[in-house]
Structure prediction request, 95 residues.
Amino acid sequence: MALKCVARRMASSGNGHEHIAYLWWESDSSSAAGCYTRDQMVAYVKQNGNASVWSPDQKGGKSAWVHRATNGTVEYVQTYADGRWSNNLLSLPTQ
Prediction:
């Protein structure tokens, strides 16, 4: 089962990936849907692997898998496509 990210909410402290506070998701294989905190999504990807969560490109480009990343202090999630980090999550609609 892969999760598709469909929306985000940012923390008030910034606008980078490490400031994503919540991610809304839908299951590809069932009617399940929900919302994870940043830490919950990091844990989900850690447990289920880099092919467990994906995000569409809201600008019509390629979808991308969600990976764990770190800035040395905070662990967060970011999309990775075609061998480079991408901004699919930051392009999602806000809640």
In short: The chain has a mean pLDDT of 94. Strands lie at 3-10, 20-27, 33-37, 53-55, 64-70, 75-81, 84-86.
